[in-house]
Amino acid sequence: MIVRYLVFILSVLALALPGLAHAQSASPSLLRVLTYNINALPSPVKRHKTMRINRIAQILKERRSQGTQPDIVVLQEAFGKRCDVIIEESGYKYVVRGPGRKSGKNARGTSWGIEGTKTYSKRPKPQKFMGSGLIILSDYEIKNPVFTTFDGKACAGLDCLANKAIMMAEITVPGMDTPVKLITSHFNSNRSAKAPGAVRLRAHQTQTDILAKFLARTTTMDAPIILAGDFNTKLPVRYQYFREEINALDAAETCLKTGVGCVLGDETNASEILYLTDDKQFYRSGSATLLTPVFIERNFRETIDGRALSDHTGYEVHYALITRKNDFAKTMCQTITQC
Fold it and tell me: What CA–CA distances, in Å, run from 333 to 13, 98, 137, 213, 225?
């Protein structure tokens, strides 16, 4: 797999060589992004949960010692102080946490289901029992982190107990004039939310609408963007609506359909990166930066005492970055057909 990966990277750069003579400012590089729902739900501390979280931290530490660590890691369901071990052991210089349970907007009347009558709190302001569970870790400087929370009309069932949100940060990647805008979120679950199907779907679509407005307000076509998170889009009707609204490419679709190919990890198959997954990465190139997915892997598959580290696996994408100050990226874009 490593050999195939290197061969593909070289092929991408080879495509770039004709343009490099006319674009001395071009700067091809890689950006490795991991999204991982670590399933650290709050509960009375159980030994096996703590062991699994510690092992996740250890794996990231081991990868750093090998020089293979992701440049950026986004975590979901990272609830509680026991998750701090991941921050402490993984070695990332820059860390941003998502909103806590009291942050942001908590609309009056938040209920178990949209327009439902069975509320989980009778207080004037509904109680959130958990924060967003979002964390961004980066080897590169993080600037201008912002977030917006989903209000009471944008959640359904048990998901309303958490202060779910969208978080964005600008990642200053060396050699790039324009930061990469990294967006993460954890959307409403499906059956595990314990709410009627129509209510769950409406909540998910409302969250998608909020994300689309958030992107319109905080991003431009100049800056490249990457959306990485647990978007809970495995259900086809959810995925279709999400794709139509966010104006970004599915990294897995590009990887599997591009003419020059893309490498998958040894234990990774097409179905688990494409549609049969709630964990996804989407992206959009900027006016001066071409993003191209060149490697995708589902990882963190090991078990401890027969238990998986999480009910999710990691979803890691490596993007080739080519920046320019003239028409070079446009030429590459037309060549690779991934604009």
Answer: 13, 34, 29, 27, 16
CA dist 286 and 290 (Å) reads 6
Count CB-CB contacts under 10 A for residue 105: 13
* Crossing angle (nearest 10°) for helices 328-336 and 2-20: 130
Q: Which residues pair with 171 in a beta bridge?
A: 142, 180
CB half-sphere exposure, 61, CA atoms < 13 A: 12
Strands (DSSP E) found in 41-164: 72-78, 94-97, 135-138, 141-149
How much is the pTM?
0.84
- Sequence-distant (≥ 6) Cβ neighbours of residue 197 within 8 angstroms: none
Q: Which residues of the chain have pLDDT under 50?
A: 3, 6-8, 10, 13-27, 106-125, 326-339
DSSP state of 248: -
User: pLDDT by residue (tens digit) across 245-295?
Assistant: 999 999 999 999 865 668 999 999 999 999 999 999 999 999 989 999 999
Amino acid at 137: L
Instruction: Estimate the crossing angle of helix 197-218 against helix 236-246, to 10 degrees.
Output: 20
Chain segment 122-171, per-residue pLDDT in tens: 333 456 778 899 999 999 999 999 999 987 778 988 898 889 999 999 99
Residues counted in the chain: 339
Number of domains in the chain: 1
Q: By residue range, what is the domain housing residue 199? A: 2-336
Nearest alpha-carbon partner for 153 in 97, 102, 210: 210
* CATH number of 298's domain: 3.60.10.10
Could you tell me the sign of the dihedral formed by the alpha carbons of 90, 95, 98, 100, in that order? positive
SS3 state of residue 1: coil
